[in-house]
Amino acid sequence: MVEISHGKMQELEVSTTARNQLVNLTARVREAVRVSGVQEGICLVFVPHTTAGVTINEDADPDVGADILEHLEKLVPRGRYRHREGNADSHIKASLVGSSALIPVEGGDLRLGTWQGIFLCEFDGPRRRRVWVKIMGGSL
Ligand code: ZN
After folding, report:
1. Distance 89 CA to ligand 1 centre (A)
2. Is the bond preceding 62 in cis, omega lying within 30 degrees of 0?
3. Which domains does the chain have, with CATH numbers?
4. Is the predicted pLDDT of residue 5 greater than 60, yes or no?
5. Residue 83 Cα, ligand 1 centroid: separation in angstroms?
6. What pLDDT digit, counting tens, does each position of 51-103 carry?
7. Which end of the chain is more exposed for a tag (fewer CB within 10 A), N or C?
């Protein structure tokens, strides 16, 4: 029998320390999957903010994250835009990386590629951020 679980959404709190920063969430999302009891399904990682996002990329060499941030700075420089709050660049970068990621869950664990990790992308820190993790699936 397959039990379908609509696990309660879990919330992670993240304190960022810089205006632009990638924060590795992989271990905390893994723990959320374990706690949910879901064996086979999908894990949604959702960032409910307009100046932060989430991305999946290399977890082995931290230079990759630094390069991503540096390139986004060049692509979307801080400067004059319409938005009066003065952080239009933060909003634009958040839209470029997106606010959610979906990861397969197999055998009660995240099924990520060998080099992949899940990162909160802070573009207007330092701040306290929330990340919602929803695991959908079943326990066989
Ligand atoms: Zn704004």
Report:
1. 9
2. no
3. 3-139 (2.60.120.460)
4. no
5. 7
6. 999 999 999 999 999 999 999 999 999 988 999 999 999 999 999 999 999 99
7. N
